[in-house]
Amino acid sequence: MVRFKHRYLLCEVVAEDPRCRRCIDERAVTTAAKGALARAYGDYGLACCSIAFTVKYLNAYTGVVLLRCRKDFYRLLWSALPLVTHLESRGQRHPCFFHTLHVGGTIRSCQKFLIQYNRRQLVMLLNSCTNKEERESIQKSLLGCFLQEAEEEQFQSGEEEDDCAETD
Amino acid sequence: MSNAREKKRAKKMRNQPANVTLGPPAGEPRLSPAQHCNGGSRPLQPQQQADLCPETSEQYQQQKLPHPSPGPSNRKEQYFTKGQSKGERGRGRGGWQGGRRGISQEMPKFITASTFAQARAAEISAMLKAVAQKSSNSLVFQTLPRHMRRRAMSHNIKRLPRRLRETARKEAEKAVHQKKEHSKSKCRKARRRHINLVLEFNRRQKKNIWLETHIWHAKRFHMVKKWGYCLGDKPTVKSYRACYRAMAKHCLLQDLSYYCCLELKGKEEELLKVLARMCSKDAGPTFAAVPCLSGRHQGSLVLYQADRYPEDLLGPITFIWKPKVGCGLGSENRQLWIWMHPTLKQDILTELKAVFKCSEPVATCIPETVTVLPHEEEPTDETRSIGKKRKREDKEGEKAVPVKKIIGDGTRDPLKSYCWTSQNTGIVISDLTMEILRYRLVGPFSHCVLTEALSAALVQTEMADAETELNSWWVENCRKSEGLSLHLHQKDIFELLQDDEKVAQLTLEGVPVECAHSFIWDQTICKNVTESKLPEQDLNRMRSELLVPGSRLDLGPRETKIPILLVQQPGKVAGEDRPGWGSGWDIYLPKGWGMAFWIPFIYQGVRVGGLQEALKHSEYKRIPHIPDDYPDCPAGIQFAKELESNLFEKFKRRPPAKRANYVKLGTLTPFLCPWEQLTQNWEERNKTQAKSTRMSEIKRCVTEKQAPNDPQPRVGTESSHETSQMEENMETTCSQGNVITEILNEVQDLGKKDGVVASNRFIVLRSTELLKQLSAWCRPTSGRGWRGRTASRQGQKEMTEDVLLPIFKCYPRALVWVTFSLLRKGTPELHTMVCIPTKEDFLHLSEDKLFCGPEEPKHSDIFKHKIVKLKERKKKKDRGKTLESSASSSLEANAVEEQKNLVLGLWCDPLSDVTSHCSRILLGFVTRGDFSLADGCGEALGFVSLTGLLHMLSSQPEDKKGFVLLRTPGSRQYRFARLTIEV
After folding, report:
1. Nearest of A88, A99, A73, A93 to residue A31 by alpha carbon
2. Contact B311, B763 (CB under 8 A)
3. Which of A61, B587, B664, B672 has its CA 20 to 30 A from that of B470?
4. SS3 annotation, B45-80
5. What family classification does the UniProt entry report for this protein (chain A) (predicted)?
6. What is the chain B residue with the closest CA to A59?
7. What is the model's pTM?
């Protein structure tokens, strides 16, 4: 089997202003990235990278964005991303920058990385906690996500069995 | 994108996390209210948190795994939300905006660690889910990298890495579950044991009757289940040409045992009197034909419902009378066999019962039928000693009776009687289906095969075994002097067949009547012979005990004598070329002896054909095949319906882009022949034409009276007279013409009677006289072979208005069976259209040597835009469904229902005028067409409208009489063909 190989860039949108998070949506991210590409590499670079360029996943709360690009040209995109200075959406501009966390060959590997990364973040948060309530809440969420994991496993298996029943 | 693909994608994406964005206009709807109320206090209140926490998790849950509810709905929901998000890209997801939008419009002033942690936690869980779930369709061990693969991993879970074992186990269970449960209770050896094999065979022929040669055929033929039988369709080996050669030059064998036989017993007068109502002299010789009545010949005719001659066809049959024993009185008890195709049996049987008033199966008949039951059992002790059925007998105790192979009809209900008696006339009708086997040998070598394979029974006067009644009937017969002499006579005649010259002599003189006698007519003898058949096993054992292996086994007096009946098939009778083509012998055997005769025939080197070969045989003989070519009988109508649905299914199986657009080709009905429509349209055409011609005729009469000196006196006189005077004129012409007019008048009367009923049904013309007349008219009067035909043309009438008018009147909706042979290129197919060529075509044909035929101009597809519109509407409706779930207007749905039967490339149901749809006027259809190996050109058989044919003939030039154009449904090219009617 021959397939198109991609690279996935897992980025974090870092902004001072929390309002920026509002404008993290697919279109804004795409235009910002493409604009940066055009500025850095001109039409050629833009065209190269826009083959199969998509925003695969984004989370406005955590500011995580997953971008896809062809493997041949991901360097262009990668090097252009730091040039993004702001996100624009609905006429509002919010200064921010992209922090690339991980470059992966599959979505799956990016997801795996993201899990690790988030966990680390949570642990860091826990360490740097100042008051008790916060600490509790963070601990709770940390535990919760692990607990959920266990629950989900069960859940999945249930679902799978359902699937079996369907396909048969 | 097709639905299935979308579904697949939806399934694949089910576990992938969806995008999470904030609500567009008002900042963070979720977080703000609490914070705002808080008035800037840093820590979150626990209750708010509680409020918040389930919210986030719930949102995540909702996207990824809605509920553990039943799968399909679950997935659909997912799919739709996906689609929606796609559609509203950039505006954020609806779910997130929720009802909260109105509550607060303000921005958060700060961010707390806990919300941050919440978001992280939610994301982690989403990602975990996505990662943990495998998304591909492959099995677990297939996803492993190559260096971790191990042999036998697919069924030995322990070879997998431990982390994958759980999923692999589930998959393995699933696979096992999927596998079909193959219940092989017994081992192969047990299954192949003879008794179990027979049991299994008996079970399998409960639904569809097996012929006795079934096993033989099933190994070599494509079998089809048809008409309640399992029949060989065509050989699996390539043998199209070989079978033709066998038919034409060697010998082709066919098992026709599936043909049904009805036996009528009773007084000859009574039988004839009643049967005469069901057939007509007009359509050929009837039951009372002299050579047939004596039992010397087999006759064939077409049965109609009683007293309904030109309409309500029942079907074609062959019949054979049992020859008279001695020259007794005229009205003795006679026996008549009527052989028919299984599709026609029910209709004919019910009609016969009604005509003879044999409604009740009379009690006296029942014992007889019970003895004829298929489950006959041989003396048990004998079979037990050989069969060695140890376990079975132990197990089943009282059911120790050895299983007997089903001989005859396996589907028969043993309690039902197959014999009906008439109360007042004493006529007995019995159903002998599968009681008598029938093989057909076709081809010039069939004599040789018969004489080589069969030998006349030796005269035997001593009983072989006192206890068994083996051959007792034969011994009895041989003791009688007259029986002996008859047998010797028959033997002599049979041996004559070996020599070709003597065969010729035989055909000149004919077989004497007394030789047509056979013991097969006697039920008891047949039964005796069937029951006393030596088992194959015994025979084989005796063969193996022979001193010289392979030498002939001589059973001496124990050899069974089997009564058979040989019937000569005439071959091609009608037409001028290939007289007697495909003649041969039919051999009738008592049941149970099928394979015993079949194998010797095979060893004589015959080729065996199936249904397809039978079809070809009838095609080369140019006779209609049963039941395909009898469109006016119920079986034929049924067949046409099935054929249509089959062809339509086949058409629909092609991808739409690869289908032929029959609308553009100008083919109204590619899958069926609309006979009713055709005849109706021609009738209307005729009426309108008659009106216009009547006007012109009046004018012409006036002019003719003024000019009495005609170049063609006869034509002139006839045409100038009135219709009433015509008959007188006819008497002066000739005898044959006279007969025709008489018949015409008779039928005219009939037509008048039926005219009130106004039957919409079409009929097929089978009146021999009229057909002869027509065939004479069809021939071109100049050209090759004309001189030879002049003799036959002597007695024929000219085609004039006066002769045609009564024909039009009494056969307004009739079809004629015609044959076509193509002039140049072209191979006709099923449902090829027969059209009338125009004058320009003839002109072109005579000018250009290479002119193949005109071309039909391209038609425009008037249904295309409708279909496109329909599609659009459907699409819209689908979209509407996604938006507003189910509430769609019922009106629209109705409209869709109406046009659902629109298929691109086919005409929708109400057909326009079939005759004038194309550039050439339609005359009829071909029901059977192929390249003829006998003539080396395309040949076709089919029906044309009688009215149309007469119109065409009257307008064509003398030397181009009977020229038509053929066009296959899948092409626009017309081909020239010559039409002939063979009588």
Report:
1. A88
2. yes
3. B587
4. CHHHHHHHHHHHHHHHHHHHCCCCCCHHHHHHHHHH
5. Belongs to the eukaryotic/archaeal RNase P protein component 2 family.
6. B20
7. 0.62
CA distances from A155 to A166, B138, B540 (A): 17, 21, 69
How close does chain B come to A80, measured CA to CA in Å? Answer: 23
Please state the separation of Cα B670 from the chain's center in Å: 17
Asked if residue B113 lies in contact with residue A129, where contact means CB atoms within 8 angstroms, the answer is yes
Question: Best of B42, B127, B139 to disrupt the A interface by mutation (most A CBs within 10 Å)?
Answer: B127
Instruction: Classify each residue of B496-531 as buried b or exposed e, where b means 16 or more C-beta atoms within 10 Å of its C-beta.
Output: bbeeeeeeeebeeeebeebbbbbbbbbbebbbbbbb
Determine whether the interchain pair B130/A24 forms a contact, defined as Cβ–Cβ distance below 8 Å: no
| φ, ψ dihedrals at B700, nearest 5° | -65, -40
Nearest C-alpha of chain A: how many angstroms from B81?
16
- Owner of token pair 């009937």: B473
* Two tokens, residue B861: 């597809």
- Pull the structure tokens for residue B5: 């693909």
Among A3, A106, A122, A133, pick the best mutation site for testing chain B contact (most B Cβ within 10 A).
A133
Long-range contacts of residues B362-369, Cβ cutoff 8 Å, at least 24 apart: B362/B419, B362/B420, B362/B421, B362/B423, B364/B421, B365/B417, B365/B419, B365/B420, B365/B421, B365/B428, B365/B430, B366/B417, B366/B419, B368/B419, B368/B523, B369/B417, B369/B418, B369/B419, B369/B430
Q: In the structure, how many helices (H) and strands (E) does chain B have?
A: 39, 21
Fold of B244-362+410-544+557-621: Gyrase A; domain 2 (3.30.1360)
Q: What is the pLDDT of residues A31-65, one digit of tens each?
A: 999 999 999 999 999 999 998 899 998 888 888 89
| Distant-in-sequence, close-in-space partners of A131: CB < 8 Å, separation ≥ 6 | B43
Query: So what's the architecture of A6-106 in CATH?
Result: 2-Layer Sandwich (3.30)
Give B 152-181 residues with CB within 8 A of chain A.
170, 174, 177-178
Distance between CA atoms of residues B104 and B99, nearest Å: 11
Residues of A in contact with B23 (CB under 8 A): 22
Residues paired with B335 in a beta bridge: B265
Alpha-carbon gap: B126 to the closest alpha carbon of chain A (Å):
9
Assess A129–B contact: CB distance below 8 Å, yes or no. yes
Where chain B has pLDDT below 70, the residues are 1-2, 12, 22-113, 134-137, 175-185, 325-331, 359-417, 460-471, 496-515, 557, 693-760, 780-801, 880-901, 909-910
ipTM for the complex shown:
0.74
Please report the pLDDT score of residue A7 as a whole number.
93
CA angle B375, B379, B383 (to 5 degrees): 95
* Interface residue A15 vs chain B (CB under 8 A): no
Residue-range domain boundaries for chain A: 6-106, 113-162
B930 vs B919: CA distance, rounded Å: 25
Question: Is B129 close to A145, i.e. CB distance below 8 A?
Answer: no
Provide DSSP, B875-891: HHHHHHHHHHTT---HH
